[in-house]
Amino acid sequence: MNEQPIKAKKRIDVLDVFRGFAILGIFVVNIVIMNSTFLNQDEFAKQWTSNIDQISSKILQLFFYTKFFPIFSLLFGLGISMQALKMLDKDKLSFSFFARRMLILFLLGVLHIVFLWSGDVLNLYALLGLITVFMIKKSNKLILTLSVIFLFFPFYDQLFEYVFDLLNFKPEIYLSDYTGETVNQIIKHGTYLEGIQLRLLEYLSNIPMLFGFLAPVAISMFLLGLYLGKNKIYDSLDVFIQRIKKPMLLMVVVTNIYRVLFLFVLPGYAIYSTDTFRPVFIKLMVLSDIAMGLFYLWGIGWFWYNTRYKFIVSPLKYAGRMALTNYIMQSFIGLILFSSIGFRLYETLSPSETLLTAIVVFVFQVLLSKIWLKHYQFGPLEWVWRCLTYKELLPIKRNTTPNRG
Fold it and tell me: Which positions, given as ranges, span the membrane (predicted)?
């Protein structure tokens, strides 16, 4: 089949606003891990006792953790479905096209891990995105049912523990010789090659979290995005947002009551720490955080369509149109800020300083994206991804040829 780029419809600005918002939230969370890896994070956090740092930590817990990864996953699934349906309408839908597209994304993820940061999710998105493409012609009922099953299934830890035992894969061995202090020394004073080795070991040691926690959330949200895309919800998003107003408000009230209880009340009771109930409490917290993330999207959409002040969130669209470029750029900036090849700030920034740094960096990205998009149709990595996908050198400058989808 001849795979040529299809002329795109006019971009839906609010979807780019959603993507920009997701990129902001992801960086606010990621920079905390860049500043202190999981290996030493709990111990490192104990030293920050000032009011501003305590408030910053609570802001991160209440408004950021576990909320933006689901958002970005849903938008990724929605993007796949919009592109696939556009190709299907023109009888150009090709599995080989999406296989190539996901393979390139996977390779970008590998390069991201090796050269910049171990916390990559692009390779996970590539693997799960390919599965999602298989579902494009399935019924809406099946897609939505699978989304719910993947989200609520309670035994992922046991399942992956069994699989790892079967494969004799022991992720805990990869960092067994490392302490918080040795990691600190490598990141702040080690060579770049030592940093690469550490990133690879970190990635391997985090595979249980990647596939046991993040992957189920991602595939669930991919499928939800696919479901929304197949129903072309983006063609009447304002109506859809108004229609789900009451259930969204009810959901956010109920889940936020639980989130507050989980964070500030339940830890004072013995039942919170029992082997029987603690996994249940944590699962409910994850579901509540995901609900909060979905509420964010609804809230921004309602604000966009029902007020005269959408100019407040409108600049997010520039970062959203270059989401891949900005995601990778954030890791590059993190490498420069925290590692030995830059300012060596690893484990020096307080919670308030990391939060402020993330916001400042993101504002810079919004401004840079706006300037870039005045002259070019796509972000640089978006353009490379498209060229490799279509096996063609596509135009990138504005006002040269008509925009191609």
Answer: 21-39, 59-85, 97-115, 121-136, 143-164, 207-228, 249-272, 284-304, 324-343, 355-373
**For residues 316 and 322, what is the distance between their CA atoms, to the nearest angstrom?**
10
Global pTM reads: 0.94
> By the 8 A CB rule, do 17 and 106 touch?
no
The tens digit of pLDDT for each residue in 41-58 reads 888 988 999 999 999 999
What does the alpha-carbon distance between residue 17 and residue 233 come to, in Å, rounded to a whole number?
16
CA distance 134 to 309: 40
| 137-154: pLDDT as tens digits | 899 999 999 999 999 998
Contact 236, 148 (CB under 8 A): no
Residue 139: exposure state from Cβ atoms within 10 A (0-12, 13-18, ≥19): exposed
In sign, the C-alpha dihedral spanning 306, 308, 312, 316 is positive
* 317 touches 13 (CB < 8 A): yes
Rounded to whole angstroms, the Cα distance separating 348 from 47 reads 11
The set of residues, in sequence order, having a beta carbon less than 8 Å from that of 336 and lying 6+ positions away, is 342, 343
